[in-house]
């Protein structure tokens, strides 16, 4: 069993009928890149950069960030690395920013909202990422975008940072892909309006589920309502993938759901292009992808979308997978 899985380390993630997807890893520090590679990651689908900012007294400098991003880029070589820009706030605090307490931190001043307000801090991160982009295949991803205005503001700031680098003769990857997370329901619903202005989407189900069903992802008492297989969640995911594909853009997923063995066939069937998960789940996911056909996964996805409750959906999938 273990041996069979290890044999999949450098195999492509390809279904029996030839659909290839990418299985990538979520990481929190540059060191994690080694574990990702050992577990057969074809890229980094989510580098959570907030850990660079946490457990310290002050903001990390541009140089410090550049070093971290360069390390990951070099470790991964020609494999893509998606660097998520700072996603602080919500459950993650930065004492030195002295942010006021909020009644609803998950609905508050966090992630891209903070970055678009503190452009000084955001620009330093963008500069560091762009400078590191000559050392590998980096991609930029914004968290918590809720609509087109925020996306445009972030992109225009990125453009101004690129212009500054050009004027100073500092090299960067001019073709760098720029995408956004889909983790706010408004972004999922209007994915068709956002798709033309990004290179890719990555669905952040951890937040998308909590906002879609209004269930705090940290609250144990209501955790039974936190349901990835809620028909509304699956409909949102289907819509996002369809909207992106209609505009010729690819779609990944970097929430926990991407590594859930029950969810993988459905997500594959819905057309998901990239699955990013904790490194330890990758080989199991590859075993799953290589053992089914895309055609079959599509029929499962269609059937699942007919059911009316999460319970029916989970029952159906467990039956299919013999669990
Ligand atoms: C998500 O929301 O699904 C996600 C991947 O981001 P985080 O878990 O860091 O909020
Ligand atoms: Mg999130």
UniProtKB/TrEMBL annotation:
The chain holds residues 248 to 570 of 570 of the full protein. One of its GO terms (biological process) is phosphoenolpyruvate-dependent sugar phosphotransferase system. It comes from Collibacillus ludicampi. The active site is at 254 (proton donor). GO terms for cellular component: cytoplasm. General (non sugar-specific) component of the phosphoenolpyruvate-dependent sugar phosphotransferase system (sugar PTS). This major carbohydrate active-transport system catalyzes the phosphorylation of incoming sugar substrates concomitantly with their translocation across the cell membrane. Enzyme I transfers the phosphoryl group from phosphoenolpyruvate (PEP) to the phosphoryl carrier protein (HPr). GO terms for molecular function: kinase activity; metal ion binding; phosphoenolpyruvate-protein phosphotransferase activity. This is Phosphoenolpyruvate-protein phosphotransferase. Belongs to the PEP-utilizing enzyme family.
């Amino acid at each position: 069993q273990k041996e069979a899985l290890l044999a999949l380390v450098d195999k492509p993630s390809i279904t029996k009928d030839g659909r290839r997807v990418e299985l990538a890893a979520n990481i929190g520090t540059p060191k994690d890149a080694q574990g990702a590679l050992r577990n057969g990651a074809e890229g980094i689908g989510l580098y959570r950069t907030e850990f660079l900012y946490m457990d310290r007294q002050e903001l990390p400098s541009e140089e410090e960030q550049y070093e971290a991003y360069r390390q990951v880029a070099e470790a991964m070589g020609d494999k893509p690395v998606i660097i998520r820009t700072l996603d602080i706030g919500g459950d993650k605090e930065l004492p030195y920013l002295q942010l006021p307490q909020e009644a609803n931190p998950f609905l508050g001043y966090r992630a891209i909202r903070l970055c678009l307000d503190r452009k000084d801090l955001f620009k330093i991160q963008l500069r560091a990422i762009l400078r590191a982009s000559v050392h590998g295949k980096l991609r930029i991803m914004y968290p918590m975008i809720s609509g087109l205005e925020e996306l445009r503001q972030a992109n225009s700031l990125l453009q101004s940072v690129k212009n500054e680098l050009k004027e100073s003769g500092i090299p960067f990857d001019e073709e760098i892909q720029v995408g956004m997370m889909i983790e706010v329901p408004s972004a999922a619903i209007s994915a068709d309006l956002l798709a033309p202005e990004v290179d890719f989407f990555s669905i952040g189900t951890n937040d998308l589920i909590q906002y879609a069903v209004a269930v705090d992802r940290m609250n144990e008492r209501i955790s039974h309502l936190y349901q990835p297989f809620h028909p509304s969640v699956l409909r949102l995911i289907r819509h996002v993938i369809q909207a992106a594909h209609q505009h010729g853009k690819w779609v990944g997923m970097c929430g926990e759901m991407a590594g859930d063995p029950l969810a993988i066939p459905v997500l594959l069937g819905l057309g998901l292009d990239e699955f990013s998960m904790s490194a330890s789940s990758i080989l199991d996911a590859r075993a799953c992808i290589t053992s089914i056909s895309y055609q079959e996964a599509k029929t499962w996805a269609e059937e699942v979308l007919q059911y009316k409750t999460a319970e029916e959906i989970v029952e159906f999938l467990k039956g299919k997978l013999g669990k």
